[in-house]
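ok new one. same drill as before - structure tokens go in, u give me an amino acid for every spot. 119 of them this time. try not to just spam alanines like last time pls lmao
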């Protein structure tokens, strides 16, 4: 019983860290990073590794045809984002961050098209 409670507490704390990082990064993107190419970008989700050493940041943008170039630019500009995470969180060590395309919207459209063909 105690092990289950401890696991739930650790899981909940992990989710809070992911949410905190997501909020910090979106705030930094809008208020701290001044780059015209990244104005239409937003971060949609964060997944942390079990030891909180690595964070995968899912990216989306209004102009989806240019998303790969924007992700490449984000991965080159990691330092200011890591600085913001370090300043505004209580991590012992700031996680390494990696930006990737959020494919959930693409998957939605694909499934929607498949369902449309069935009707």
């Amino acid at each position: 019983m105690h092990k289950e409670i401890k696991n739930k507490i650790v899981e909940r704390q992990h989710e809070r860290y992911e949410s905190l990082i997501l909020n910090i990064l979106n705030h930094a993107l809008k208020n701290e990073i001044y780059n015209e190419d990244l104005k239409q970008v937003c971060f949609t989700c964060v997944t942390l590794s079990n030891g909180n050493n690595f964070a995968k940041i899912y990216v989306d943008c209004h102009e989806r045809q240019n998303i790969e170039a924007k992700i490449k630019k984000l991965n080159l500009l990691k330092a200011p984002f890591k600085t913001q995470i370090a300043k505004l969180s209580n991590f012992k060590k700031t996680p390494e961050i990696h930006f990737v395309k959020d494919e959930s919207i693409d998957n939605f459209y694909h499934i929607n098209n498949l369902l449309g063909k069935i009707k």
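The mean pLDDT is 86. and btw The chain is about 55% helix and 20% strand.
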